[in-house]
Amino acid sequence: MRLGTSSPLVYDSGEHWAKYQKEQGCSAVVFPVQSNEPEKKIIEYKEAADREGLMIAEVGIWRNALSKDPDERKKNRDYCVEQLKLADYVGARCCVNVAGTVGDRWDGAYKDNFSKELRDETISMVREIIDRADVKNTYFTLEPMPWMIPTGPKDYVKLIDEIDRDRFAVHMDVINMINSIDRYFSAEEFVDECAELLGAKIRSCHIKDIHLAEKYTVRLEECAPGCGEFPLRYYVTKMNEIDPEMPVILEHLSTDEEYLKYLGYLKEELNGLYQTI
Q1: Range of the domain at 149
Q2: Burial letters for 185-204: b for 16+ Cβ neighbours within 10 Å, e otherwise?
């Protein structure tokens, strides 16, 4: 597998960015330039990644394509299409977003997230984005969420069938799906289920950790790798078995110092699994 971070870390040019990522032991990256930036800059960063042998794992979106505000919804869907086209141009393994909500918070927990109406709208939205972008070299994916579809591998398989587009694939964030005490205590079995059901459809993975707090009632808290109880090496081993080139991306830390600290932890914990370049 290829290790990377969701942070561009410190950089002042495409060359600096790519060389520094490689120096830190990364062989996969999240593309740091957006589709609405100058083409010259996009080319600069793509060529820098290619020169250093860095796999572009993901192009992120992180906007609500289901917004209840029509103007915002249109603007965000247009951005989704352009980001997916960007992913295709730079050869990213996938372009990733969350399904979205009709609530005030773009990634929030709402009962309506699980309504038939919103599921149907999600299916229609994904089809629209893929059809408009008409990509050949990448895939559109939805990151699973604890309170937003898809919330688990079986739901993801169902969504793949419902969307019915060759360019729709899987983004794996196993920690986001640990939304019950059963999944927390049966983590290895849950990883096995994800690998068995989603397998070759997985294009990129996120990595972090999860901690069960002692206070009542059930409090499952995301945390940095090694600060929780999830069997991270087991998870990455399974992803590596699916694809030895699988990118595994460290995310949701606050500073470059934290990214470098926990990247160091992962390099020790995953010794023998991750590629160096």
Answers
A1: 2-269
A2: eebeebbebbbeebeebbbb
